[in-house]
Amino acid sequence: MKIKDIKTAVVNTGDLPYMPKGTPVGRDYNWVIVRVITDEGIDGYGETYYDPEAEAQIQGNKPRLIGEDPTNLNKINALTGTQALWQSRWRSGVEIACWDILGKSLDAPLYKLFGGKYRDKIRIYADSGGHLGWGVGSPDPKEFQRRAKQVLAKGFTAIKFDIDPPEHWSWAFNRSVSEEELKRFVKQVQAVRDTIGDEMPLAIDCHWKYSVDDVIKIGRRFEQFNLWWLEDPVPHGNIDALLTVKNSIKTPVSVGETMTNRYEFRPLIEKQATSMIGPDSRHTGGLLEFKAICDMADLYFMPCAPHNMTTPIGCLATAHVCAAMKNFVGLEFHFQDVPWWDDMSKSPHPVIDRGFITVPEKPGIGVELNKQVIEKHITRGKDFFS
Predict the structure, then answer these.
(1) What's 3-107+369-380's CATH class?
(2) Which of 204, 226, 229, 255 is the most exposed place for a label (fewest CB within 10 A)?
(3) pLDDT of the residue at 90
(4) Are 274 and 268 in contact (CB under 8 A)?
(5) Is the domain defined by 112-358 classed in CATH 1.20.120.80?
């Protein structure tokens, strides 16, 4: 089997509800999906981050991949560059599509190619945003409560909110937190916890905004809420600072969504500077490196809750690996506000049903794409399915 062609398409969500105007967060979101076409009539589908450079890299490197066997994953990865972030992003789309081809060629679901599954269902946690965007749109605790009720009504059994006050986008570049903000954060989280109860897992995302001392203040104020984890508490690049935070609060800390490979994760894991990791298979260059990172964390009995902002293609591809991962605890989902997200798949059942994904048994990723729905939202790459 040989690769005959590789195509990409940009799929746009359109205007997302609840996104306040005048904020730095975009009112829509782009996905980049990848199609690898073979000379034996088997096509594979993958996904990467929206990044014009990633799209250009796929097209620019296509000549070195055409003619190669897509089931030789190790060689495909070697041919698609180093582990740098900008290369990992474009590699992921191609690599995931090649896994899809491998599974289809063997008539086997992906999880079997990763050693079989520990679990039949994958728990999804609903990333529900914060008052800067992604579903809340207001600092009023009642709005956080409204959003939590919305998530409960959809059947999710785990949830995450952001604390991203607009001040930190406009003037507070010093990473500080005022007492006023701290009190507001506590009221917001209290409103969520009062709504969902004491037992439902609740995570809070800081998005790398805060200094060590200030995020320790936040973490200690939040200890009363028994959080699942506090995510990305300090800026990138200083493991010792992260370790100080982790050792100073009782709430578990999670990081890793922008990290690209096991070499980058290694010092973080070996120093145990985090309680858990949240890698993203689109950042790691695909599923092979993603699984290696999670297995490395398991050496330190460190849980894994992967970052995930994808279509059903990337979501189900990652879910297969999560099924085969001993230390998996939850997979992220961002797009509960996109009414046609499920419609991208032809499955008669929702991809995410009452907060869980049932691991597909069909060959490859196991998703049959609804081309008509996807084509309505393609903004670049109109010939993707032709």
Answers:
(1) alpha beta
(2) 226
(3) 79
(4) yes
(5) no
